[in-house]
């Protein structure tokens, strides 16, 4: 256009144009320029209008103060009203809560101050549905005057996405079965309660449903799930509302409660007792009135005393003690008792190393014939730990710890191997005059499926006849449901090993005919023997013992006794029919060379 008009003005053929002729030419130039610029502006305006109207995103054009001038159809549909109803409202009027209104106000200020874009997720008001989660963008459009700014609001629907995120977050921190917070959520809550600046008292309660496996296996997992929901509801009803009570399901049938504030142990114990009583009330499911009991471990302390790990450990120890004490009860954490237990647990943790380092040795208890106390009937072999710091430790001090750490079987294997090695040495010296060795089987070794193979390997290794070995067990070991103890003992008896049963009453004795046990000896133990350790035993005690011995003879059993303290007690037992005994009345224990000397002095006849 410029070139065309330049050519026209230049082509004057050497004639200077007068103003009246030049003016029309310039006007024509101006009209032409305006026409072309207007054409481009109209096209851009049409395209913007079409985009604004067709956009799936809600858009509102506002004046410099934030008043809505125009709103597109998408925004009206998103907020449940016509665009016309939005005109004249202020942008901040769309916020649903005071917090959202303040954020819209802050966004407008930032855009006016030069920020290109402000974005937030917030709640806007929907005409019919109430609150709606949206992603909001505030931007700036240049005005028709230099420096003027017109805000534009752009809104997209985030409700479904937000609700999905909320559901996922809820699932991440809540137990899907009971709806309670889960272990992760509980740990976060506990750490926050113990955070910097915490001044409250803290109560942590661990609860565990007693015998839940019986419910789950007996009535089915579906019923078990309903029972757990019932437990969750009862715990929530008791603890929620007290000292910011926070109840969570940790795993399986384990729950935890966190309380904080000004707490007294008596108050916390009262809440726990109420919860345990409520749990005892039957839950009726499918015609079954199911009552559950629970054990609880309680820790109450100031928040500044120790961290989360120490608090959790204390609650777990208290719960463990409650279960050991008979279940269906609570136990308050005792720091002094814990200090003693830590020493015991440290001892249990090093049993494996002590066995490998040769710190264990055999200790023997001789069993003598009461008709001739100078003649040995058998030698009972046990373990002694020669601890480098604590000195000599008896089996009752470390066997329970071995049970906890899984060292019972290695200790039992070592005991059996060393006992048979000693027996082989005695028999090489004395032949058939050497006493039998009696080994009490730890329960965990008795249920071991390789027991028969282990015994046979050791007998063969030391070239011993099976009759040289007596294997002693008690009622609990025989009835242990975890293994085939009776079958193993029957096979060992067929090989020739002598089986010995420790008994304290008629019920124990009757296990022999009931299960057809190939037992050859019974050993009286406990109160039934202690009752004779007085100057004048009661008639009832003598009658009870007489009945036991009579029944044992009917079963063709040889009767011995353990724990015999005095010669008078030994004499009474002999009069009643006991043929052999061991205990302090003859010699409490012997080790190493002592037992060799004892055997040489008192060979078996």
Account of the 3D structure:
The chain is an alpha/beta fold and 605 residues long. It folds into 4 domains: 1-52, no CATH class; 56-164, 2-Layer Sandwich (Beta-Lactamase); 173-333, 2-Layer Sandwich (Alpha-Beta Plaits); 347-599, Alpha-Beta Barrel (TIM Barrel), CATH 3.20.20.450. The protein is built from 25 helices and 22 strands. An 8-stranded mixed β-barrel has the order 13-14-16-17-18-19-20-21, surrounded by 5 helices. Strands 2-1-5-4-3 form a 5-stranded antiparallel sheet, sandwiched between helices. The longest helix has 36 residues, at 19-54. Residues 344-603 form the EAL domain. InterPro entries: Biofilm_reg_signaling, EAL_dom, EAL_sf, GGDEF_dom, Nucleotide_cyclase, PAS, PAS-like_dom_sf, PAS_4. This is GGDEF domain-containing protein. Residues 200-335 form the GGDEF domain.
